[in-house]
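Researcher: Here's my situation. A collaborator sent me these components and asked whether they could plausibly form a single complex. I don't have experimental data yet, so a predicted model of the whole assembly would be a useful starting point for our discussion.
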Amino acid sequence: MINVAIVEDDREIRQTLALIIDGTPGFSCKNTFEDCESAIETLPEIVPDVVLMDINLPGMTGIEGIRILKERLSHIDFIMLTIQEDDESIFDSLLAGATGYLTKDTPPADLLNAIREVYKGGSPMSTQIARKVVTSFKSDKKSPLTERETEILQRLCNGENYKVIADAIFVSGHTVRAHIKNIYEKLHVHSRAEAVKKAFKDKLI
Amino acid sequence: MINVAIVEDDREIRQTLALIIDGTPGFSCKNTFEDCESAIETLPEIVPDVVLMDINLPGMTGIEGIRILKERLSHIDFIMLTIQEDDESIFDSLLAGATGYLTKDTPPADLLNAIREVYKGGSPMSTQIARKVVTSFKSDKKSPLTERETEILQRLCNGENYKVIADAIFVSGHTVRAHIKNIYEKLHVHSRAEAVKKAFKDKLI
DNA sequence: GAATCTATTACGCGTATGGGGTATTTTTTA
DNA sequence: TAAAAAATACCCCATACGCGTAATAGATTC
């Protein structure tokens, strides 16, 4: 029996969802909330398995709500159930701790399935949304650095100093220095820290 | 009509897949390859819409193959079709440019669906695999740093020097140094570069 | 209420770092 | 084959950096 809770301000939607879920064998839905504030108050007592969470809510947003709830009740899985499909809503939700992300036009059968999937350790979402997630951690631009420079940048990221790098790649400290100057120029930075930041931001290493 | 190509070393599997796909209305599969090398040679001429790619291949791996093919034929979508389900294979595939990721036990109907999804701009994958992807860009451990320290770490990442930071947060340069020392101790690092690296790796900022 | 820990403030020392150059050899590309 | 890019090596110099040490105010714990 999967215990489900709902946080959704629209009374109609909230009750319909609860009815569908509670009326399906293997599911139970006895707790619904119209805002995050009341959910945060009550959830620690009932501790459901899965929570369906809207984003647009009066007061605290669903994203902020998940962030707070996840801190204390980290074992509860949250599924975003929202009309928003913009990149920011999706990424912020997942970063806040949402496990699944569905849009409100998801058919009941699919919704129930998604709840099952989350319960079994999956992250249900449309393939369109998955694409956004996949794209987000792929480096798009190709590195302007040479192989040698990339090797040195990697070592810069590890905090190795000129001499250590020089010894490691069997060249003089002067050469390392020259390479690093070129790296900085290509990346448009003026310090190690900025170079490291750019290395990670642009996924150069 | 979605034009599909297959790269798969097992003759049995390759031919079965080709038959299924080519025999389905709306799909065409006239080109199959038993390794990446021959695929790289021929694909630029036929330019399919979608390529099903195995990982374990004689010679070049499917991951390496995608990396090379994506450079020239960036508009082709690749679906990984493999037995591997380890995190590394998944992430390396997606980083190399794969759009979808399926295991070989995927039923034919689901496979055809996945091809359609990719063609429509989605990223088909099991919810279990999606979970791994989602988890990968979520910060798991909570920051050991104070608010002040986090603020300073952020500025360190931007390459701001002591004086600039000091002026920005209205304290002396000495104080900034002390904070940074504490940051380094907490993060177990000994330089800006390492701190910046850890900040991004652990998603502290 | 005392003890402890943490965050914040502060100073001096030696050195690695980054900015400014210049130059030769090898490899890649046009 | 000429030109461009990459890799190698060297110099000077101001300073930003990391390390050691220490005091004070606030929060937390016992």
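Model: Some features of this prediction you could bring to your collaborator: Strands of chain A lie at 2-7, 27-33, 50-53, 77-82, 100-103. Chain A has a mean pLDDT of 94.
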